[in-house]
Amino acid sequence: MRELLIEPFQAGYMRRAIVEIVVLGVLGGVIGVHVLLRRLSFLTEVVQHTVFPGIAIAFAFGQSLLVGALTTGLASVVLLTMLGRTRRIDADSAMAVLFAVFLAVGVVVVSRRRGFQSDLTALLFGRILAVDERQLIDTFVVAGLCLVVLAVLHKELVLRAFDQGGAEALGYPVNRLDLVLDAVIALAVVAGIRAMGTVLVVALVITPAATARLLCRRVGTSMAVAAVLGAVGGWLGLVISYDASVHHGWRLAPGATLVMVLTIGFVLVAAGSWFVRHRRVRALVVAA
Amino acid sequence: MAEVEAALVLDGVTAAYDRDPVLRGVTGTVPVGGSLALIGPNGAGKSTLIRAILGLVPIVAGSVEVLGTTPAHARALVAYVPQADQLDREFPVSVLQVVLMGRYRMVGWLRRPNAAHRRAAMDALAEVGLADRADERFGVLSGGQRQRVLLARAVAQEARLLLLDEPFNGVDATTTDALLAVLARLRADGVAVVMSTHDLSVAHLACDEACLLNGEQFAFAAIAEALTSERLKATYGSSALLLDDGATLLAR
Q1: How far does A287 lie from chain B, in Å, by closest CA?
Q2: Does A288 map to a domain?
Q3: Beta strands B209-214 and B35-39, pairing class
Q4: What is the pLDDT of residues B71-100, one digit of tens each?
Q5: Cβ of B75 and A170 within 8 Å?
Q6: What is the distance between the alpha carbons of residues A123 and B80, in angstroms, rounded to a whole number?
Q7: Based on the structure, what is the number of domains in chain A?
């Protein structure tokens, strides 16, 4: 057991990968609680798609892919949040139009360049094992920024999620609060994309928070539990994929393994809570 | 804050979302400690008027004066009580946390509620008879209990004007009694109350004055004077049914 959990981290790339995934797990867990409270899962999907042109453009001009992704990801979220305010366009249509435009721009840029193929694979599925020290620092900065903003605005964001009318009546700038939360979600998703890829990053945000929701009755405890689940799930996923690949010759992609671990956790907790509730109901019926 | 005579002065209020006015020419006054029932069919503009008093809807003509100032300036002294059914029952928040939300503006940005805020919230909960449920999740309470928690939140806010959206809608008798008792106590302390309601008997119990609304104002007067069969019929049109004994049934 000790070998399984510790040995993989003798290698520098594994150490960096584990730090990266633990930080992202904590960040994803905490943000996921807000995403579920506000039912904003679709927002993570928007960012998944709209980072593509930013990454493509940054690649074409030899700039930082993270900055490129952040720029278009944030831009799309701000646009969508503002479009959501008008009564003339419904959110679904606004989202569909944004998706198409951002993807089209990305495709135009990519089709004019060669040699983007391998980077596209990385974009889709992530490259957790190739994280270098600069990227680690980027992740620390983004995660720190997001967590500080969420801590500072915690009670206001929870009030707004619970009771929008009440928050407005109290005079809170609900539009600006929404914009800040949406931007934080976009930042976190972008930070996660490099490690997890656009396809799998959503699991890091939604799954631990969904599991925590089944276990907790308070926002604060949900966040703590989701953060731990995200971090532990990330660790386990990485270790299992390493062990399988190095000792058993099965090649398990770390990102996908991590998603499987998180999902198994969710299914176990869901089954457990169903069982407990079911037994309680049966006890009540018998008592009656 | 200087003493003001009127909690609310509406003068020809016309409110509009986009361009179409939803509400035209509402005029009347609610004194300090007074109470007004907003009565009218669904879509009559009751909620719009409440939002106008909160300063959340553009006023295209006329004026709203709250506690001697503009709605935006008076906001800290105005409490809004939504319908309990409009809030997510699955939301992971305790009863006490909901009541504490009423104190958030006093707590301020960047701070957490302190012991004094908690005490105020517990006192408010005790007043609505739910002190023993403080640590439970808001969503597990019954509809009537949740409505009482939301009133406790307004009490904890220490407002001078209370705006309630259909507070008696579908609540049990215990809750009705508790709400009426708290509203009476608040009014005795000089808090003015404005509530929208479909329930004429409760309007009689809780309010001195009534405003009949359906896009425009059909009456704004002492409750006995406002709630006559003719006026209700004029307000509700064909959805008011007058019974032989003079009682009036209103469709939603």
Answers
A1: 21
A2: no
A3: parallel
A4: 999 998 999 999 999 999 999 999 999 999
A5: yes
A6: 48
A7: 1
Q: DSSP letters along A36-94, please?
A: HHHT-HHHHHHHHHHHHHHHHHHHHTT--HHHHHHHHHHHHHHHHHHHTTSSSS-HHHH
Q: Counting every residue, how long is chain B?
A: 252
Which residues are within 8 A (CB) of A15 and not within 5 positions of it... i.e. 6 or more apart?
A9
Q: Looking at CA atoms only, how far is residue A230 from chain B in angstroms?
A: 19
Q: A161 to chain B: which residues are within 8 Å by CB?
A: 91
Confidence label for B1 from pLDDT (cuts 50, 70 and 90): very low
Interval B196-214: pLDDT, tens: 998 888 899 999 999 999 9
Enter the tokens of residue B98: 């909901």
Identity of residue B242: L
* CA-based nearest residue to B252, from B203, B193, B204, B200: B200
Token pair recorded at residue B52: 């106008």
Strand extents, DSSP E, A78-197: none
Domain contains A277 = yes
Nearest-Cα distance to chain A for B244, in Å, is: 41
The amino acid at B211: C
What are the residues facing B64 on neighbouring strands? B10
Residue range(s) defining the domain that contains residue A214: 2-283
Is A162 within 8 Å of B72 when comparing Cβ atoms? no
Domains in chain B, CATH or no CATH each: 6-250 (3.40.50.300)
B182 DSSP 8-state letter: H
CATH number for the domain harbouring residue A101: 1.10.3470.10
